[in-house]
Structures are given as structure tokens and as C-alpha cells.
Design brief:
By secondary structure, this protein is of the alpha/beta class. The chain folds into 2 domains: 140 residues, TPP-binding domain (Rossmann fold); 77 residues, SIR2/SIRT2 'Small Domain' (2-Layer Sandwich), CATH 3.30.1600. 32% of the residues lie in helices and 21% in strands. The strands form 3 sheets. A 6-stranded parallel sheet has the order 5-4-1-9-10-11, sandwiched between helices. Strand 2 and strand 3 form a beta hairpin. Helix 5 packs parallel to helix 9. The longest helix has 17 residues. The radius of gyration is 18 Å and the shape is elongated. The two termini are 14 Å apart. The model has no long low-confidence stretch (mean pLDDT 92).
Length: 231
């Protein structure tokens, strides 16, 4: 089977009712990013940061995968699919995708404050202050904050070099790491971009633009790909 690599961003989760990371006013759920999504914020006010991510986790658990998530999962019948996502929700997995790389972690797990490689499942939606890892440090959300390394970026770049078909869904090419990962996709690989507003791009070869929201656009691309398989 052909290797299909899909890079997804906030746009696909927005249709499940999850707010995009940074709204037009620069806030996320009414908070300044700097106050809830940086190592400095955690050092300054860990209780606030913990409560913020507990609420985001509750929102994620209440949300449901949408038709775009399900359409990507069903493509595994015809393609060797890897989903690389910038999103911290688990909607791809709940829709049935079996090979998902989370660039920014996944909020439904916790991690050690000392060693980000130590991650744990969470019982319910809340991490309580006083809950510690095996090293004795406070557990926090398993998410990558501004100012922290993106540990999966090298793996994601390697996956992109092997893509025989590439799809970008719900993320702007002006935002990294999306734009950077696209550089690793071979020139000859067809590249489908699904987004309501696709910027002008001249440097990318074999580009097919689908200017639709994710729930409409992914289904269209899936249909195009399956038609191609029949020839």
C-alpha cells in the first residue's frame, strides 16, 4: 500500500467544538498564552496551569470525533496511513486511526515535571496537585509548552521524507512546524491541502488545493485518492 502521511492542525478539531489554540484576540479560552502554556507560568503558578489543563482535558473528553477524523481513519483500508498532529486531543485515536504521532503531546496523559519521557494514563479528567511521578515530582499535563523542545519533530520529519501521498488538514502553511515539515516531503509526492483559506504558495510542487473546512474537504480528498487507486 502507498504511504499516506497526513498532517493535521487545530482546524480539524475546531469542528468538534474544541477552540483553536490561539483565537483572533490572542487568547486561549480567555487566558494569555504566556500565563498558562510556558514553563515560566508553571513555575510561577502551577495551580492555575494545572486547573487550566484540567478544564481543557474535560472539554476534550466531552468532545466527539467528527466526519473528518473518521474519514482519515477509514483511509487505512487502502493506504498505509500515518497521522502527524499538532493537536493535543485524542480524537484521531477515538475515530479509529491506529498510527498517530502527537507533536505537542496528548492532554489525556500526564507527565513528570522532571522528566518529560515519563508519562502516565489519567484516571478521569483531573490531575490533582500532590499527585507525583516515580521521581517524586508533581504530575502535569503531557503537552509541549512554548519554550520547550518538540521531541517528536525529528521522527515526524523522517516520516514526511517517506510520504508517497501527503495531506495537510486544518493548519496554515505560515505556521511552524507545519511549514517546516512540508519541506521534507519529496517534490514528486502529490500534496493535498484542505483548509478554508489557503495562502498563495509558489514554491511547493504537485500541490492540490481543496478550499473547504475539514469535514467537507477530507471526504473530497479521500474520494479523489480512491478514484486514483482504480486506474
Amino acid at each position: 500500500m502507498e504511504k499516506l502521511v497526513v498532517l493535521t492542525g487545530a482546524g480539524i478539531s475546531a469542528e468538534s467544538g474544541l477552540k483553536t489554540f490561539r483565537d483572533s484576540d490572542g487568547l486561549w479560552e480567555g487566558y494569555n498564552i504566556e500565563d498558562v502554556a510556558t514553563p515560566e507560568a508553571w513555575r510561577k503558578n502551577p495551580e492555575l496551569v494545572q486547573a487550566f489543563y484540567n478544564e481543557r482535558r474535560k472539554n476534550v473528553l466531552d468532545a466527539q470525533p467528527n466526519t473528518a477524523h473518521f474519514a482519515l481513519a477509514t483511509l487505512e483500508k487502502d493506504f498505509d496511513v500515518t497521522v502527524i498532529t499538532q493537536n493535543i486531543d485524542d480524537l484521531h485515536e477515538r475515530a479509529g486511526s491506529t498510527n498517530v504521532v502527537h507533536l505537542h503531546g496528548v492532554i489525556t496523559r500526564s507527565q513528570s515535571s522532571k522528566n518529560p519521557n515519563l508519562t502516565y494514563s489519567i484516571n478521569g479528567w483531573e490531575i490533582k496537585m500532590g499527585e507525583v511521578c516515580e521521581l517524586g515530582s508533581q504530575l502535569r499535563a503531557h503537552v509541549v509548552w512554548f519554550g520547550e523542545a518538540v521531541p517528536m519533530i525529528e521522527k515526524a520529519a523522517m516520516i514526511c521524507t517517506e510520504a508517497e501521498v501527503f495531506m495537510l488538514v486544518g493548519t496554515s502553511l505560515a505556521v511552524y512546524p507545519a511549514a517546516g515539515l512540508l519541506d521534507y516531503v519529496p517534490d514528486e509526492t502529490p500534496k493535498y491541502i484542505v483548509d478554508p483559506k489557503i495562502p498563495a504558495i509558489s514554491s511547493v510542487q504537485n500541490l492540490i488545493k481543496v478550499e473547504e473546512k475539514a469535514t467537507v474537504g477530507v471526504a473530497k480528498v479521500a474520494e479523489m485518492l480512491r478514484k486514483d487507486l482504480k486506474f
